[in-house]
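Researcher: I've been going back and forth with a colleague about how Glutamate carboxypeptidase might be arranged in three dimensions. Neither of us has a model we trust, so I'd like an independent prediction. The organism is Sphingopyxis indica, in case that matters for your notes. Sequence below.
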Amino acid sequence: MKSLAALLALPLALALPAQAKLSPAEQMMARTVAAEQERNVALLERLVNQNSGTLNLAGVEKVGAMMRAELEPLGFAVTWTPMPGTGRAGHLVAVHKGRLDTKRLLLIGHLDTVFEPDSPFQRFERMGDKAKGPGAGDDKGGMTVIVAALRAMKTAGTLDGANIEIHLTGDEEDAGDPIEKARAALIAAGKRSDVALGFEGLVRDGGADMSSVARRSSESWTVTASGKTGHSSGIFTPEQGDGAIYELARILHRFRTELPEPNLTFNVGLIAGGEQASLDTGKIRASASGKTNIVPATAIARGDLRTLSGEQAARVKAKMAAIVADHAPGTGASLAFDPGGYPAMAPTTGNRALLTRLNAVNRDLGLPEMAALDPIKRGAADISFVAPDIDALAGLGTYSTGDHGPEETVELPSIARQATRAAILMSRLAAEKR
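Model: Here is an independent structure prediction for Glutamate carboxypeptidase. You can compare it with whatever you and your colleague have in mind.
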């Protein structure tokens, strides 16, 4: 007889041995997930084969309709919320009302992918226990885990009294503008919930499944340096000064040498300078012109900033501003941060307590306990918008590799493993008094 841990690694196995640490309902959930593995893979294939690049608004809405078809039969009231004025399709919100006095769970995932209709990477391809496809892990694998877990809860009877709200955003990969409007509904849902669970992908470190009690922020910045233009023979003189490019180089060098600290990164992704320099309206392309014998008048750099807390972000921004203001001779410079951006999900005591709860599930399943992933190894995510208000845990989606690239590949057994973990964790949390 296989152990439960082996069963979760082999989702085609249907026999579940009795586990003294699992309740009868929990044993039924594990059996249901295992029995429905091929159904779950088929759902993942359908989701992947419908292109839903963020800017494919109709495609995003079609994936939303597929998820509606899965959630409504489970007793969820499903609403499509269009996002006019943000340049994005909209969000799917599903609500299951349970007992009034128990905890309210917020499940977060996203409908969109980075692969637009003109990408050559468009179809699901199964390769034994793996499958390749656009969004197979990020985040159509995560949405498949949500459905698999909820179906198991429904079968076991633990969904009936559960208060669960699901937010599947249509623009996680490239948020709509203004982001305050694009994320208003999610933030409001966080304020009325008790626990948030993020279903973006599971991360492994050294071969071990990890959980995320923290995710870093993501903000974009622009430094614009100016100088006195003129004949290059006069550079570095009191009359001519250092020029814009040397001023920008000074600033970036000091960023690199003076800013580093734990959990902080600051990339420079675009740079241009010359007699003239400018950015396009999307701030992703730059143009410049100049000559070797002309002191440059303008230099521009674009980059990002990732921090682990609001306090760290404020402190680092102040240091950046002080560096920018310490001008080289005959130059000027300014620092600007783009509006919006993703906040940090700080590693709170409450988040760590959720990981403790998840590890209790792991022990009862006969699976190894999960450590907290170093947040430097994860990017920003939608769960960060609600993390300031409630306890949050991320990384409940599938395990995949090569995300955001043409080799994005999901490990299919991770659907069963993650769905079983999630179903039991959600059932236990949803039964607790508020």
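Researcher: What would you highlight for our discussion?
Model: I'd start with this: The first helix runs from residue 4 to 9. After that, consider the following. The chain has two domains: 4-215+343-430, 219-337.
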